[in-house]
Amino acid sequence: MTVQIYNTLTRKLEGITGRGLNPLHINMYVCGPTVYDAPHVGHGRSYIFFDVLKRALILDGYSVSHLQNFSDVDEKIDNRAKEEGVEPIRLADRYSEEFIAEMDMLGVIRPDMYVRASESRDVMHRIALSFIRKDLAYEAGGNVYFRTSSGGGYGSLLHDTLDNLITGHEADNFRFVKENKEDFTIWLGKFDRSNMMSGRPSWNLECFSMVHKYFGCELDIQGGGMDLIFPHHEVASVMSKAYCRVEFADFYVHNGFVTLKKDKMSKSTNNFISVHSLLDDFSPESIRLYLLSVNFRQNIEFSITELREYEESISVLRKTARDSGALKNERVVGISEAEQSGEYWSEFQSALNRNLDTSGATRIMMEEMKGTGFKGKEGKSDFRLMCAALGLFNHRPSAPQSEK
User: Fold this and answer.
1) Which of 101, 304, 320, 386 is most deeply packed, by most CB within 10 A?
2) How many Å apart are CA 153 and CA 282, to the nearest integer?
């Protein structure tokens, strides 16, 4: 079977294949948080979704190399650190550690590597310098800009005419002097060709550089929220088409938002509910199922009432599984168990492989609970495989994630 997903690049449902020599090996990069505050439920939804995507791929026989960044070179961090009277790097350390701990509690399998922008300045500096030397970028007005026309311009993800370029949240404190309004910053402040600590890399350059460092020009999946389509992922596309002569990724996958009072959850607007506060009152399983209850491209208006309903469903599911003996101490599930599974797992996996239909897959799981109750060898295997796919009750697939 092949996992199919909606690709923002082509605006079609497509079967996932690797760009490299092995079509069943996937390089996946998911944009991480800017670490100046605690993770909120919107973050939780995004990383739970990509966690399930990775699980579905592994259970289908793929191997996955998964990379995620922390944006820890940012004015928001500098400003918050100044308010608290601490060093910016200490603040970033604290919230990076909190993010990892809370994703662990939510059952999100850790990436093969977390990479921090602060630890990759040398790579970003070298790439910016290479851009300048290749005439792909230029220095002007105290910043460095990417010459958009050198990459063929915009259009891979926007699918529309661009009237104005948003240069990023850094724009408020910098004066921009550009050759073309569509050019974007890759370095802010003085760029010293021999000193990477002069000025600082722009967010626009950050993810492109870290992907290039670890995957070169062989990125299969670029993931993140819908808000990253433009400018962040679009400018990565522009740079890649100029530097690598290929599209940045073969698959761009973007999830919808969790909204609160009809607005996107956001730390910058203080309109959010922290993951930590939810974990005080709800199980990780109920949070996961609730956030997976609608198609990943749709928004979810946060509802405590609906979350409580999922908590009740999880309690019944846990009891049924325990009574049938389906909950074992061993929670690592090999894909070989699929050979012992029944028709429910086959239907479940088919749903999951159709654009990661987690809502439909969950309904199939609940039908088996009401039907067979996970009894017998097939029922127990079904349950364990479903839990490994959805990340429930500490189950996880055992296939290697980084075998290339």
Assistant:
1) 386
2) 47
